[in-house]
Amino acid sequence: DGAPGNTIGGTSASAGNTISGNTRSGVLIRDAGAVGNVLQSNAVGTNPIGMAAVPNARGVLIDNAPSNLIGTAGAGNLISGNTGEAVRIQGSGSTGNSLQGNVAGLDATGAAALPNTIGVRILNLASGNTIPVAAYVETPVARMVPDSALHEYSLDIRSLTITLTEENFLS
C-alpha cells in the first residue's frame, strides 16, 4: 500500500516476470502514495511462456492510486487467463493511469483465446485514465463488446472521464 516508483519487469521480454496463481490480484497498486509505478513485459495470469492459464482472481488492480503505467510501447504485458478482470481501475484517487501495448485475453502468440472474464473495468469515480482500446468503442461512453469465450465484456466503463487510444489489444 502506498509504495511509489517501483518497476516490475522491464523493457525487454527477458526482464519480465510470471505473476500467476494468486487468490486475489496478481498486481495491486493501492492508495495515493502508490504513484509512478511501472509494470512492463510481464505474464500476468499465465504460465511463463504465456500459453496456458494460471489464473489470478484479477490481473492488475489499481485502487485509488494515481499516475501509474501498465505496459509501454514495445514492452506491454500479457494479461490473460484471469478469473476476473485483466485490469480494474477503481476509486476517485485513480487518475492519470495509463495502459499501453498490453495484450489481454489471448495467448502469447496472439492466435488463441486465453480469456479473462472481463478485459478492462473502470469504476467507482476513477477518471482521467488513458485506456488504449479505441477499436472496441464507438463513443467515449463505451460500446460493450462480448467476449467470445465467456460472454462477458472486453471493456466495462462505469466512470467519469477517460482517454481512449489504440495501443492495446483485448480479445
The succession of helices and strands, N to C, reads: EEEEEEEEEEEEEEEE
Kindly report the average pLDDT value.
Answer: 81
Structural class: mainly beta
Low-confidence stretches: 134-153, 159-171
What descriptive keywords fit this protein?
171 residues; 5-stranded parallel sheet; mainly beta; disordered C terminus
What features would you describe in this structure?
- The chain is mostly beta strands.
- It is 0% helix and 33% strand.
- The strands form 4 sheets. It has a 5-stranded parallel β-sheet with strand order 2-5-8-11-16, with no helix packed on it. It has a 5-stranded parallel β-sheet with strand order 3-6-9-12-14, with no helix packed on it.
- The protein is globular.
- The N and C termini lie far apart (31 Å).
- The model is unreliable at 134-153 and 159-171 (pLDDT under 50).
How do the strands and helices of this protein lay out in sequence?
Elements: E1 7-9, E2 18-19, E3 25-30, E4 38-40, E5 43-44, E6 58-63, E7 69-70, E8 78-79, E9 85-90, E10 98-99, E11 103-104, E12 118-123, E13 129-131, E14 153-158, E15 162-164, E16 169-170
Parallel strand pairs: 1-4, 2-5, 3-6, 4-7, 5-8, 6-9, 7-10, 8-11, 9-12, 11-16, 12-14, 13-15
Brief summary of the model shown:
With 171 residues, this protein is an all-beta fold. It contains no helices and 16 strands.
